[in-house]
Amino acid sequence: MTIDPVTLEVLRNALEAVAQEMGAVLKLTAFSPNIKERMDASTAIFDAKAQLVAQAEHVPVHLGAMMRAMPAILARSGPLGPGDVIVVNDPFVGGAHLPDITLVAPVHVRGDGGDRLVGYLACRAHHSDVGGMEPGSMPGRSTEIFQEGLVIPPVRLVRAGAEQPDVMALILANVRTPEERRGDLNAQLACLRVGARRLAELAGRYGADTLVAGFDAILDYSERRMRRRLAELTPGTYAAEDRLDDDGTSDEPVPIRIEVTVTPERLILDFAGTAPQRAGNVNAVAPMAQSAAFFAVKVLTDPTLPPNAGVLRAIEIRIPEGSVLDARHPAAVCAGNTETTQRVCDTVLRAFAQIAPDRIPAASQGTMNLIGIGGRDPRTGRPYTYIETICGGQGGRPRGPGMDAIQVNMTNTLNTPVESLEIAYPLRVERYELRAEAGGRGRHPGGRGVVRALRVLDHEARVSLQTDRRRHAPYGLHGGEDGRPGINRLVDRDGTARTVPGKGSHSLGPDEVVIVETPCGGGWGAP
After folding, report:
1. CA angle 290-293-220, nearest 5°?
2. pTM beyond 0.85, yes or no
3. What GO cellular component entries does it have (predicted)?
4. Least crowded by CB within 10 Å, which of 5, 59, 292, 332?
């Protein structure tokens, strides 16, 4: 079936609107501040072949990884019937870290021949605790996946429309905050129900055949646009390297290497020479690294390109097995999602700066600055877990300075408002301000990071830090100076401050403070 251009554009925008509405429902019904305030979650629509067709403008590291992981999830789960919902967080199947719980539901529409599978809906959300050795399930020094929380293979949370209470009970028995987890999982289920209803409405309006043909046409359209953009680039091979500060267990840097080959028909990204799998938790599974590469390709080619599986037909990504970008089980991977994907993005963009210097900015902060705090809330006597990623400086851009205090590259979350944070948790925000130091000097200077200081109130707590760019500053480009590294500090009750490593877990007593100063971006062009 051929889809005319007008119908194609209507369907494409309608599908994106469905994904956006799913995200809005999730945000409005979630229990945890990490989802309802920060929107650390993503929604997407797939065709019956598990190819990404449409997504909301949510978190890039979620969306790109889901695109690569969906075939593996469905292969493990087996055929899904009407009303089934799969739950999964296993990184070695679902392509994320354990706190990112993904729900997948098939969409069946009624036709003359009975129920017909037209596609799948997926919702991935970062839950603020899934068990493990530290509150928040992002331990600073984990060395195997089992220390990071409950591993959920693809199993049915809902079967034929009926929740499976045993599965839900098993999940809730292994987390510190079961009421919050149940609320967030129910919010994810609600967003899938809304998405299924909207897709059924589209099938009723245009016909299931037209809807399915529209999926194929959308992918073909994105492929054509990507190939046109590639044809505009100068053919050749371009190499770059960057590094993570360390893996959390030693001070040894972790190099990421890339060789980009541009041809008129294909873009090849080869990560040969990247560090082997490490003992610490900066390991990533392949879908994480692929999502970062996919994001960087969009920056190079066309940010307005519809992000779906059609784009990938023109891209080949080669990742060495057993490397830090394709770790083997039972590797620890929690920081692979938050830190390593950021460095992959920085490395690929550094290579792309040789291809299109007028499009690529200097390095931004290059870290998610993840902080997790947990303990027992003295106000209620119940456990709590607070999790957040903190904004920083953007790299100077070809047409202007880098922005201050912004989430960059692989993250697209909001901050937790101070008032909401202090209501939800026994913590006080002592400082939330721009750093006094500027970003890297240049014709277009880098943006400033922020200072966020949190005081623990009336209880003993554990704090975990997953941060990077504490020793190796964000790079400048084309003569611009490097930015400024971040700093993590703990302050005792007597006011004594000490600097702590970028990755680690620590105990804090009443009235003790954790301070995170996030990196400033690199400069672009000679000052």
Report:
1. 80
2. yes
3. cytosol
4. 5
